[in-house]
Amino acid sequence: MARATRSQRQSSQSQQPARHAPRGTQSQRRRGQTEEDEEEEAQQDAMEEDAEADKDADDIVRKASDLVRLALFTEHRRAPLRRDEITKKVLGSKSRVFPEVYSRAQDILRKTFGMELVELQSRSEGDDDPNQKEKNAMGLKKKATSSGTKTYILRSMLDPALIERACAPNSAILNVEQTEGKVGTYNDDDDDDNRVGTRSTGSIFAWHHADELGSVGILYVILALVLVNGRAISDNDLRALLKRLRLSATAPIPLSSQSTHQNLTTDAYLLQLIRQGYLDRRKIGEQKGAAGGKKRGRAAPSAQAANGDDDSNTFEWRWGPRAMSEIGEVGIAQFVAAFMVQRRGNVDDDDDEGDREDAAMRRQIEKMVQGIEKAASGRLLDITGR
Question: In what ranges is there compositional bias, type Acidic residues (predicted)?
Answer without folding.
Answer: 35-57
